[in-house]
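Dear H.,

Thanks for agreeing to be a second pair of eyes. The structure we're designing against is below in token form, covering all 371 positions.
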């Protein structure tokens, strides 16, 4: 990996970005679901509400990079931590719609990728949300048609899909292209490589039809392409120091954090407990995540997709704040975004309290925490 990336991570340079309006406008908003998935989600009889609060509204995406949310819900670990306060869930298809729900009060806490978290924070001039924890690293791959692309240099001149303009994978791919010395207009996607912004739900069909030659995508889309005959040409984790980079964060409304810190602490305890359970029970956790995916989407993943996808995702409590800095810097470098101030985007106080109580190592905000 070029020195700029490792240097930025090592030095913890603060990079900041402004809202990519075009990316948000182009993004399709997904539907929400609030149905219970199992008896483990039920509030235990006689349990007390935290701060007298009836419900906490939690959002997440129905994909494997949100495994903590999937497993924690399916196994009732969030509800266990919340006692008599009911966990109410909504699922989303896109980051902007989840940020919109957070801003409107439709959800209080959410699992979300780094780019929409940055966008939501900067659009509100630092007033809408905080990142309060980490959830996942990795799970992003460049998968190509091996008949058309046999090496990295063969990507030049080909049509490669990313999920949407300005999203986390789109920025990563544009940065990789620049590192090869190739030129692409970030807005149009035209240049030495054709960057085709394609919703993850239809990327496998686009690949099968031959309208794209590959894709830089998160799991399980990457493994779906492999199941269709694609080949993993590059795992994005290989480009990062220690092979770690943030793919999913936990965010909270600043208003909710101020008014109900004990409830937020309970959700974070549920997250830490879930991650510990996932580490101790990987096979059961994988099955639980797939079961929740079936509840959320009506369809579970086949083993040939689920197994490799699950293997490539690292569950973590650490928000990997320094890599968020780097991802933001790449967006600026690509010319998609301007530099605002990300100071205060993190508040890891409650997470570190929970980690300390559990005997786990505390985590760092890379200098971007609340002062």
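And this is the sequence the design step returned. I haven't edited it by hand at all.
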């Amino acid at each position: 990996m070029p020195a700029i990336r490792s240097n930025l991570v090592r030095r913890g340079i603060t990079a900041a970005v402004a809202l990519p309006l075009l990316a948000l406008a182009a993004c399709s908003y997904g539907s929400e679901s609030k149905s219970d998935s199992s008896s483990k989600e039920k509030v235990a009889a006689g349990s007390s509400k935290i701060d007298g609060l009836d419900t906490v509204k939690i959002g997440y995406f129905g994909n494997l990079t949100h495994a903590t949310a999937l497993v924690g819900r399916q196994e009732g670990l969030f509800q266990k931590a919340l006692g008599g306060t009911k966990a109410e869930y909504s699922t989303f298809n896109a980051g902007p719609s989840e940020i919109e729900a957070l801003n409107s009060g439709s959800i209080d806490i959410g699992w979300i990728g780094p780019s929409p978290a940055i966008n939501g924070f900067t659009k509100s001039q630092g007033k809408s949300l905080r990142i309060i924890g980490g959830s996942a690293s990795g799970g992003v791959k460049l998968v190509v048609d091996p008949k058309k692309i046999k090496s990295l240099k063969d990507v030049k001149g080909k049509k490669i899909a990313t999920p949407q303009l300005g999203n986390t994978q789109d920025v990563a791919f544009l940065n990789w292209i620049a590192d090869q010395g190739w030129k692409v207009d970030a807005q149009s996607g035209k240049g030495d490589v054709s960057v085709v912004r394609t919703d993850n739900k239809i990327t496998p069909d686009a690949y099968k039809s031959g309208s794209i030659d590959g894709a830089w995508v998160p799991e399980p889309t990457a493994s779906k392409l492999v199941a269709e005959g694609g080949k993993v040409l590059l795992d994005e984790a290989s480009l990062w120091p220690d092979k770690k980079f943030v793919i999913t964060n936990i965010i909270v409304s600043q208003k909710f954090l101020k008014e109900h810190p004990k409830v937020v602490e309970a959700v974070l305890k549920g997250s830490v407990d879930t991650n510990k359970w996932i580490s101790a029970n990987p096979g059961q956790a994988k099955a639980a995540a797939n079961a929740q995916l079936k509840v959320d989407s009506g369809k579970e993943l086949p083993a040939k997709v689920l197994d490799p996808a699950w293997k490539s995702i690292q569950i973590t409590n650490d928000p990997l704040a320094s890599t968020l800095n780097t991802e933001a810097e790449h967006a600026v470098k690509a010319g998609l975004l301007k530099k605002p101030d990300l100071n205060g985007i993190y508040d890891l106080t409650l997470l570190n309290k929970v980690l300390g109580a559990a005997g786990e190592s505390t985590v760092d905000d890379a200098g971007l925490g609340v002062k």
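Two observations from my side: The two ends are 33 Å apart (CA to CA). Confidence is low (pLDDT under 50) at residues 1-31.

Warmly,
E.
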